[in-house]
Amino acid sequence: MHFGGGADMDDIMQMMMGGGMGGMGGGQRRKRKGRDVGMAYPVTLEDLYNGKKATLPREKTILCPDCDGTGAKKGSGGGPCRDCRGQGARMAMKQVGPGMVQQMQVPCDACSGSGMKVADKDKCKSCNMRRTKTVDAPLKVTIEKGMEHEQQIPFMNEGDQSPEIDIPGHIVVVLQEEKHKVFTRQGDDLKMTQKISLAEALCGFQFTITHMDGRQLLIENQPGEQIKPGDKKAIIGEGMPKHKKPTQFGDLIIEFEVEFPSTLDEDSVEKLRKVLPAPPKMEVDYDPEEAYPCSVQPQAKDDVEKEMKKQAAEDDDDDEEGGAGGVQCAQS
Q1: CB atoms within 10 A of CB 234
Q2: Is 223 among the domain residues?
Q3: More confident residue, 305 or 105
Q4: How far apart are the first and last CA of the chain?
Q5: Which residues contact 236 (CB under 8 A, 6 or more apart)?
Q6: Rounded to an integer, what distance in angstroms lies between the CA atom of residue 122 and that of residue 215?
């Protein structure tokens, strides 16, 4: 069973759903849309803070302007086969049994499967019947203040053109934030880590930060306001600008790392004992004749791993022997 007029199955289904079976002519063919394409674009945190305009080089496929994508000279009457719409094939319906119809694709008999009906003298010399051309079509991207990592900037219907589609797809530029050497972003806030000495933590400090717009911030902590390791302080309004609200800003969060001196001479120790609060008195009960004095030492990473493996092996031995577990002391 064959539907005449070169209609394919999309047309037939559209006719049945849109205009009913009466006359088979009331429906409209669904427009064919090209696929959307994503383009990753690396940006710095400075770009997202200050905003930026950029041009992305790109090549784009367009319909040949000299033949409007027909492959034939204008006015020649040649071009894509109307029966198969340039596809070179059409869908046909074949009856395969009582009440059963099979859909199948067959070569278009109007154009012998070529999809084109153009005489040699009428061929478009500009595209040589390819119907498309490749041109430079750079994208002008505007990065707004406060935009975020993986935020999308769409260019509607700027995708490649093709005779097989009616509407080009979209180009979507996806921002990819690069790692910053000082700041990390958390929403509208900025975070950074600052190392200070023990003396600065106890007696106050000053240091400067060069912000992403070039301003220099003087960060101060007054004597008497101690900073503990891991303390976090906020500089209000010195974070990221809020997207679509560029006059509003998040905060700058500074986490402090306090560097302790590796050693102290006896004179320094005595001075600190006089200045710092006395430690709580701890009575230690031990036998001076039996107790063996030990001093703690930094443990290397390799030693830690060896100790963990040793402990794991001992635990396995205890399990195999059916021991009750727990800590065991070596007997002298």
Answers
A1: 13
A2: yes
A3: 105
A4: 101
A5: 251
A6: 66
